[in-house]
Amino acid sequence: MSPYPTGPMKQPMATKPYILPRWLKLKDAATYSAIGVNRLVALAEEGTVRGFKDPDSGRGDWIFDRDSLDAYRESQAVDGESGRVNERVMEILAERKCRFSFRGRTETGKP
């Protein structure tokens, strides 16, 4: 038996553009936001972030709005007394958004 393929060569699959979903499952939301799963559920229950049990899930899985997670994290970067933005926190958030990958793909769609 030859170690080299003898059949027709397969064409590489065309890559489709990937869109990061707006609604994230609990574990993905925790990874994305760097907030623990219990804390995320608590934040959703108190109305700080937008999240709820997925009505389409038979298991009662939680889903979270990615935009509300961004808004929550960005609100933490503003000093309540002075109203000044902590630039270093904003840099970290921006870096984290760029590095976050969802099921092996970055927000831009490239693996």
Describe the overall structure.
The protein has 111 residues and is an alpha+beta fold. The chain has helices at residues 26-33, 37-45, 66-75, 87-99; strands at 23-25, 51-53, 62-65, 101-102, 105-106. The protein has a 3-stranded antiparallel β-sheet. A two-stranded antiparallel sheet has the order 4-5. A hairpin with a 2-residue loop joins strand 4 and strand 5. The longest helix is centred in the last third of the chain and has 13 residues, at 87-99. Residues 105-111 have low confidence and may be disordered.
Strand neighbour order, sheet with most strands: 1-3-2
> Main β-sheet, in a few words?
3 strands, antiparallel
Please give the share of residues in helix. Answer: 25-40%
> How would you name the oligomeric state of the polypeptide chains in this document?
single chain
Rg, nearest Å: 20 Å
| Number of distinct beta strands | 5
Q: What is the average per-residue confidence, as pLDDT, rounded to a whole number?
A: 78
Helix-strand pattern: EHHEEHHEE
Number of helices: 4
SS-based class: alpha+beta
Concise synopsis of the structure shown:
With 111 residues, the protein is an alpha+beta fold. Helices cover 36% and strands 13% of the residues. The radius of gyration is 20 Å and the shape is flat.
List the helices and strands and how they pair.
Elements: E1 23-25, H1 26-33, H2 37-45, E2 51-53, E3 62-65, H3 66-75, H4 87-99, E4 101-102, E5 105-106
Question: Main attributes?
Answer:
111 residues; single chain; alpha+beta; disordered C terminus; two-stranded antiparallel ribbon; three-stranded antiparallel sheet
